[in-house]
Amino acid sequence: xxxxxxxxxxxxxxxxxxxxxxxxxxxxxxxxxxxxxxxxxxxxxxxxxxxxxxxxxxxxxxxxxxxxxxxxxxxxxxxxxxxxxxxxxxxxxxxxxxxxxxxxxxxxxxxxxxxxxxxxxxxxxxxxxxxxxxxxxxxxxxxxxxxxxxxxxxxxxxxxxxxxxxxxxxxxxxxxxxxxxxxxxxxxxxxxxxxxxxxxxxxxxxxxxxxxxxxxxxxxxxxxxxxxxxxxxxxxxxxxxxxxxxxxxxxxxxxxxxxxxxxxxx
Length: 266
Ligand code: G3P
Prior knowledge:
Elements: E1 2-6, H1 10-18, E2 24-26, H2 29-39, H3 44-55, E3 60-63, H4 69-87, E4 90-95, H5 108-118, E5 123-128, H6 131-140, E6 144-147, H7 149-159, H8 187-197, E7 204-207, H9 213-221, E8 226-229, H10 231-237, H11 241-252, H12 256-265
Parallel strand pairs: 1-2, 1-8, 2-3, 3-4, 4-5, 5-6, 6-7, 7-8
Bound molecules: SN-glycerol-3-phosphate.
């Protein structure tokens, strides 16, 4: 499974890439806002270019802002023309259904994906909450589909009036309780169903809205192609109390001759 960082924070991105295990970046308007709030006035065009250069040969998703077919395609073209030449790694994020619940333009996202895919612009179909939406996006030619698994868990927990913290894993006791929405039992189950449905498509399943390492691991177990995670979760991946304790004990036990031998080699 590929590991993307879900961030528009250039310092986090730099640090995560320095580990040598990051395969791409996803951004969205909220993440861009967070970066602007943190760094104050930034020249957004230069800032994005810097991020694209850090990512080098790995894909970076940039999202459109509008909510109708024509404007989304226009914005996608603007973003792609302005930024893809920098490092040839831009992916355009299009919401699968940008309608805000209005009846007239539910399919504008799917149509925009189709148009861009025909022009060979890689698309990441975002805000996916059902396997059906993923199927439509894949049929339209999306390069990636992004099920928002943490937010799907929020949705089920709110439906069943459960109290929870954003980073809590769900469901603690498997699917036994039967909590589900239309046959989907959790965010990870949403990812699993999409992986199975898209087996014969070129579209990659990009698990998003991941809040803890267990969700991340389960995405790998159900064979998601990609997981995009906040920097905090990347950092949590490497930590275990017993690893730290083991290091302390090994260090205590170092034999002088062994240490001297290594010092001489330096
Ligand atoms: O990639 C989507 C992600 O940024 C949303 O995460 O935790 O706000 O649902 P979250």
